Amino acid sequence: MKKVFKLSLVMLLAFTVVLAGCGKDKNTNTNSGANGGEAAPKSDVKVGMVTDVGGVNDKSFNQSAWEALQGLQKEQGVEVKYLQSKSNADYQPNLNQFVKGGYNLTWGIGFDLGDAIKAVADENPNANLAIIDSVVDAPNVESVTFAENEGSFLVGVVAGLTTKTNKVAFVGGMESPVIKRFAAGFKAGVLEVNPSADVKITYAGAFDKPDTGKSLAATLYDSGADIIFPAAGATGTGVFNEAKSRNKSGGSKVWVIGVDKDQSLEFGDDVTLTSMIKRVDQAVKKVSGQVVDGTFKGGTHTVLGLKDDGVGLPETSKANVTPEILAKVDEYKQQIIDGKITVPAE
């Protein structure tokens, strides 16, 4: 009996050592980071984002905003999450889900969320909120808008000097002050360098209808336009699809000008003439970072234009835009920054 007890005690001690070793390995694996075992960054800050109806994969500004938050998560360990809105009725409940969940900052992406952000901000004065493309008058909301007309003027210069048919077009999502700034700037840029050009302005009535965008593009290309600039979220994907289909069939070459992101990375250089980049990603990253470092101040409105590199053209424009045209773009960019040219906003 004594012998059996001693044997059991030895086995118990051995098992304890094994367990201790396993526990040590587990903890090492949990805390090791991607950089040679260095611990991954960790923050207690939580940032939520509510999309408009275009959705997080709109290849446009919602996607750009979400990519910025993912970058913040990777770099600083911030917890991030998005909620996708299927209709306007989802905006306020989605925003409230983050606010009531104790998130340190809640984003509304798109002018359409303005009323919902205002309502939630008023009901929750201690919550931090921020919005892209709209100005919300509340002490706990930071508003960020862009001089879309300035960047659009520059892609208008490209279109006006590139078109072979002397017909170009603009497809907006919903008719709103933001989208009107895109349209006004584009038209002004085209006519600045090509006064005889025909600029057609049209609206799809939605940001989440690729089929509508494709149909509108087909009509515009059939009418002789060879360049279309869509500012329409996911609806603009349909414009790209129509252009790619036409170019593949071997007909007359047509182009699309991308928006918000460098869309040549998504749709290819064969169809993307250039893009009007709107640095939603930088704005989202900057404001979210203020929450991390404790410098967030609500009740402010920031406008980002050419002088701030908030809008502009990507380096990839060199693939399809001639050096001579890009030189003209640079000239006009400087004139706008210097105040020699005031670009219309509507």
Question: What do these coordinates show?
Answer:
By secondary structure, the chain is α/β, with parallel strands linked by helices. The chain has 11 helices and 12 strands. It has helices spanning 2-31, 61-76, 91-100, 114-123, 148-162, 177-193, 210-222, 235-249, 264-267, 280-293, 323-337; strands at residues 46-50, 79-83, 105-109, 129-132, 141-146, 167-172, 198-203, 227-231, 255-260, 272-278, 300-304, 311-312. Strands 2-1-3-4-5-11 form a 6-stranded parallel beta sheet, with helices on both faces. A 6-stranded mixed beta sheet has the order 7-6-8-9-10-12, sandwiched between helices. Helix 4 (114-123) links the parallel strand 3 (105-109) and strand 4 (129-132). The longest helix is centred in the first third of the chain and has 30 residues, at 2-31. 46% of the residues are buried. Mean pLDDT is 89; it is low at 1-37.
* Strand arrangement in the largest pleated sheet: 2-1-3-4-5-11
Classify the helix fraction into a percent range. 40-55%
Distance between the termini: 96 Å
Unreliable runs, pLDDT <50, ≥5 residues?
1-37
Per the principal axes of the C-alpha atoms, what is the gross shape?
globular
